[in-house]
Design brief:
This protein is mostly beta strands and 120 residues long. The protein is 0% helix and 38% strand. It has a 7-stranded antiparallel sheet, with no helix packed on it. Strands 2-3 form a two-stranded antiparallel ribbon. Strands 5-6 form a two-stranded antiparallel ribbon.
């Protein structure tokens, strides 16, 4: 069993709300897992990355996390108490929430811990 990375844990001093496990419905809508607070290191910066198809994109933010996140999930820099109850159900309605567009995971030398970086 792999343990969660402690390589960057001490730098994850911000809180974000995460909506994961997006499931696409027949009418084109999506449903998400319940919103949850996670520790992050959020950097509002542009960084070039390639998606799974090889197309080049530029991020609006780079976020370091201590757990695996889902492509298509959403992140909001803040706490659950910053959001209205209807926003907790639909991250697309939160103006400052951004979609996870890239997920990177780099192992430590022993491959027993990981640094995770997502692009929004």
């Amino acid at each position: 069993m792999r343990r969660k990375s402690t390589l960057i844990a001490k730098w994850l001093n911000q809180t974000a709300v995460y909506w994961g496990t997006p499931v696409y419905g027949g009418a084109g809508g999506r449903t998400f897992a319940d919103a949850a607070e996670i520790p992050v290191r959020w950097e509002d910066k542009q960084e070039v990355y390639r998606d799974q198809a090889g197309a080049e994109h530029t991020s609006s933010a780079v976020v370091f996390v201590n757990e695996d996140l889902d492509l298509g999930g959403y992140l909001f820099l803040g706490e659950l108490t910053d959001l209205a109850s209807d926003e907790l159900l639909q991250p697309q309605t939160v103006a400052a929430a951004r979609e996870v567009r890239y997920v990177g995971k780099v192992p430590s030398v022993k491959a027993d811990m990981f640094v995770r970086k997502v692009m929004l």
